């Protein structure tokens, strides 16, 4: 099944996920179905422990529901092999983490370039696109610096550049402003909004941040593992 | 990118990586130094054996197994023709350094001088002095003792030879020969010494031979008694030019070396003079298999009743020493492998644990499990390569220092101290084998932690603190 301009980028059908501790089973997500339109700014909101990160992980194909169906860009991802799923993530999904999760031994440039390496993009094109992307997030001068030489805001800009460099259909971000001060958080939100419009990418956030919620085109509220 | 990432990753915790690489380096150093030592030992032993007995010997069929007890019965007929055929063979000609005949003799040696009357059994060898001198110059590996000319057997017509120190001691010749640290035998009621008593007629013959020769020679003499090829007793006098101490006591107590003509006279009398062996010393030891094959083929073509033996067969002690040192090397290698294995497993397990969240991140970005495994294996390999390379450098420095230190030692098979040297470990099997072996061990040691990293679930890895 291929994506059309109007078909949802994410379609979840009756997905459920529980965590098992010994004999105890703790449901995290219960029978959730939803669709996310392409090229929109979506947020998943809910209190801590409500299941929003679990839901985001399943959308990002890094966790598997106990039941239900997950379709990303029309692809039934639960049918893919482990390698095919890894390749699918490499092509289709970008991640922005709360703790940035940059690779400490790589420079800002190399961190952003890394996803293109996974896609076997030729070296010249890789360099051109990486340079342009770093310029785009305002870090052209910091290209050679390693993550420990960057501020929190700069790290998150690198993380955003890394997520967008491959021009994915979907960017997932788990609390992307939680570790940033207010001013930096605001600038990061503005940057993500601008990049989303520029790259026509779907952004899905898990957040408590009211500023991010205010930017949302589509909002999903979750409580005790169900959408409310 | 894989190796760039691997090198950067192992430099994260420098102290840990340096310690692990140092252990690998110590492993390489120990293996290369011991390998250098054994290489030198093997080279020294082989040089001594080849200088004395050559690489190959042609015998009459059956001599190797049965001939030493009765060499007269195993003479090679028309040996000059055989030697000419071998020498004229184009394939062998280029490989041969020296070809010389030898004659083995067994019998009784006696000293019947005015003051002494002693006899004992001996095992003698008749050889061509000039060829022996040329053979003593062979030093393919540079592991031989410095060449010192020895002309005691150089005159083919003289009755001059050398005896073992033990023979000199038992025949009461240490004094006349001025042999240091050689005790004189105590007076014993049985004047026949260690050999069976001589038949009175033979004893008279020996005494007469001694009396006849002493008039013309100033050197101490021994009378050599043996049976000729047709069973008749025969006796010759040998002017003892000196002592040639042998490393094995049994040999030293029986050794007599004499010119080939004298040995032939003793064994064959007035009959056809034959030899028991034709010794071939090659320019290079590596030619032994080819030369042997050609000799066997030549013998078969001529339908000659001859056999060929190489220096390893003639010197089982050498093969045993090589086997023993090889076993010790293997044992040492196993210990080093275990040490390197544990060190690398420990280091890489710590690396995997510390980078769990990072593994989750790159897996989420689309890196396959196999790529994670490859990355950690590359890190183990790089760590091993750094350590092994350092070990090789240290080994070469250590060998240079040892070789310039001027140490001395007495290796097995030698009677005098020689310089203690280590051979440069340039044999590909030793140098590349050690280097590659340690890199391989370090890489394989990374496999369990690498598998653990590759198998981890992405969400669990991302949650890891």
What does this structure look like?
The complex is a heterodimer of chains A (228) and B (465). Chain A is of the alpha/beta class. Chain A has a single domain (38-65, 80-227), classed as 3-Layer(aba) Sandwich (Rossmann fold). Chain A is built from 7 helices and 10 strands. In chain A, the strands form 2 sheets. In chain A, strands 6-7-8-3-9-10 form a 6-stranded mixed sheet, sandwiched between helices. In chain A, helix 3 packs parallel to helix 5 (152-164) and helix 5 runs parallel beside helix 6 (182-199). The radius of gyration of chain A is 17 Å and the shape is globular. Chain A starts with 9 loop residues before the first strand and ends with a strand. In chain A, 44% of the residues are buried. The model of chain A has no long low-confidence stretch (mean pLDDT 91). Chain B is α+β, with helices and mostly antiparallel strands. Chain B folds into 2 domains: 2-45 and 319-463, no CATH class; 62-304, no CATH class. Chain B is 54% helix and 16% strand. In chain B, the strands form 2 sheets. Chain B has a 6-stranded mixed barrel with strand order 2-3-7-4-6-5, surrounded by 4 helices. Chain B starts with a helix and ends with a helix.
Name of the level-1 CATH class of chain A: Alpha Beta
Runs of chain B with pLDDT <50, length 5+? none
Q: Structural class, judged by helices and strands of chain A?
A: alpha/beta
Question: Helix- and strand-based class of chain B?
Answer: alpha+beta
Unreliable stretches of chain A (pLDDT < 50, length at least 5) are none
CATH-defined fold name of chain A: Rossmann fold
Largest sheet of chain A: 6 strands, mixed
Overall pLDDT confidence of chain A: 91
Domain count of chain B, please report it.
2
Q: Give the CA-based shape of chain B.
A: elongated
Structure annotation, total helices of chain A:
7
Strand order of the largest sheet of chain B: 2-3-7-4-6-5
Distance between the termini of chain B: 27 Å
């Amino acid at each position: 099944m291929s994506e059309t301009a109007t078909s949802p980028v994410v379609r979840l059908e009756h997905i459920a996920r529980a965590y098992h501790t010994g004999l105890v089973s703790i449901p995290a997500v219960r029978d959730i179905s939803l669709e996310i339109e392409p090229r929109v700014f979506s947020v998943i909101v809910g209190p801590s422990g409500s299941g929003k990160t679990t839901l985001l992980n399943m959308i990002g194909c890094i966790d598997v529901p106990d039941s239900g169906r997950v379709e990303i860009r029309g692809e039934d991802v639960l049918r893919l092999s482990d390698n095919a799923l890894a390749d699918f993530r490499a092509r289709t999904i970008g991640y922005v983490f709360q703790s940035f999760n940059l690779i400490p031994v790589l420079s800002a440039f190399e961190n952003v370039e890394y996803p293109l390496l996974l896609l076997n993009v030729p070296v010249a094109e890789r360099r051109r696109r990486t340079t342009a992307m770093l310029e785009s997030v305002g870090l052209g001068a910091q290209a050679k610096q390693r993550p420990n030489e960057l501020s929190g805001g700069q790290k998150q800009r690198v993380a955003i550049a890394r997520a967008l460099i491959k021009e994915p259909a979907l960017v997932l971000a788990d609390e992307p402003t939680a570790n940033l001060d207010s001013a930096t958080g605001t600038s990061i939100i503005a940057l993500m909004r601008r990049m989303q419009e520029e790259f026509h990418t779907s952004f899905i956030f898990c957040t408590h941040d009211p500023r991010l919620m205010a930017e949302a085109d589509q909002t999903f509220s979750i409580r005790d593992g169900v959408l409310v | 990118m894989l190796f760039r990432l691997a090198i950067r990753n192992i430099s994260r915790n420098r102290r840990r990586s340096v310690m692990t690489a140092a252990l690998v380096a110590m492993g390489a150093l120990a293996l290369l130094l011991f390998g250098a030592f054994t290489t030198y030992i093997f080279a020294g032993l082989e040089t001594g054996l080849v200088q004395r007995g050559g690489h190959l010997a042609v015998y009459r069929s059956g001599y190797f197994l049965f001939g030493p007890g009765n060499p007269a019965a195993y003479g090679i007929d028309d040996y000059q023709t055989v030697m000419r055929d071998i020498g004229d063979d184009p394939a062998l000609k280029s490989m041969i350094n020296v070809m010389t005949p030898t004659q083995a003799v067994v019998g009784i040696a006696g000293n019947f001088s005015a003051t002494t009357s002693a006899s004992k059994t001996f095992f003698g060898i008749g050889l061509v002095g000039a060829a022996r001198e040329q053979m003593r110059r062979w030093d393919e590996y540079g592991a031989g003792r410095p060449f010192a000319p020895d002309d005691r057997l150089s005159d083919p017509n003289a009755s001059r030879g050398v005896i073992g120190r033990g023979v000199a001691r038992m025949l009461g010749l240490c004094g006349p020969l001025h042999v240091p640290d050689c005790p004189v035998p105590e007076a014993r009621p049985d004047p026949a010494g260690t050999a069976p008593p001589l038949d009175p007629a033979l004893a008279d013959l020996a005494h007469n031979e001694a009396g006849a020769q002493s008039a013309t020679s100033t050197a101490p003499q021994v009378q050599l008694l043996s049976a000729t090829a047709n069973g008749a007793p025969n006796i010759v006098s040998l002017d003892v030019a000196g002592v040639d101490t042998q490393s094995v006591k049994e040999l030293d107590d029986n050794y007599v070396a004499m010119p080939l003509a004298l040995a032939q006279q003793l064994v064959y009398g007035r009959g056809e003079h034959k030899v028991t062996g034709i010794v071939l010393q090659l320019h290079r030891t590596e030619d032994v298999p080819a030369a042997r094959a050609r000799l066997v083929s030549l013998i078969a073509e001529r339908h000659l009743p001859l056999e060929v033996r190489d220096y390893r067969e003639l010197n089982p002690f050498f093969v045993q020493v090589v086997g023993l040192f090889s076993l010790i090397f293997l044992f040492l290698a196993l210990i080093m492998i275990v040490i390197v294995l544990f060190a690398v497993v420990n280091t890489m397990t710590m690396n995997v644990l510390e980078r769990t969240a990072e593994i989750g991140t790159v897996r989420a970005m689309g890196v396959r499990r196999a790529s994670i495994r490859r990355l950690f294996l590359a890190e183990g390999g790089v760590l091993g390569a750094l350590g092994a390379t350092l070990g090789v450098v240290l080994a070469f420095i250590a060998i240079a220092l040892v070789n310039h230190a001027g140490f001395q030692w007495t290796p097995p098979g030698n009677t005098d101290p020689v310089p203690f040297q280590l051979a440069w470990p340039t044999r590909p099997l030793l140098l590349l084998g050690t280097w590659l072996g340690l890199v391989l061990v370090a890489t394989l040691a990374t496999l369990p932690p690498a598998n653990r990293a590759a198998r981890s679930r992405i969400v669990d890895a991302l949650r890891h603190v």
